[in-house]
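In this section we walk through a basic example: taking a raw amino acid sequence and producing a predicted 3D structure, encoded as discrete structure tokens. The instruction is simple. Fold the sequence below.
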Amino acid sequence: MEKEYIGKLNNLLNVSQKENGYSTRDLIIEESESVTKLLLMKNEAYGDSALNPSNIFANGDAVENLSARIDDKLMRIKMRGINDETEDTVQDLIGYLILLKVALRVKHG
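The resulting token sequence is shown next.
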């Protein structure tokens, strides 16, 4: 059953072609790899502070702090819309959502 689902999903993703020759599948892989690289780079630069917050100003755990950051990003999108000016905000939001999933996984075992 799982193989059948994956086969259907691969067929669906490969059917949709962009003008530049990239399939939807290729674009999904490219975008997700971009977010992964950004997360890993920022995680190293910030000393894993998203999942192990220093709590110098904020007193929340990782889930609470990440939720606050997500709220900030969503508010920026709400106020300015999605455009060239907020493209980085969308990328950051995706990253924070992934970090939230990781934090929830760590918190709940």
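Looking at the output, two observations stand out. The chain has four helices and no strands. Helices lie at 2-15, 24-45, 62-80, 87-108. In the next section we compare this with other chains.
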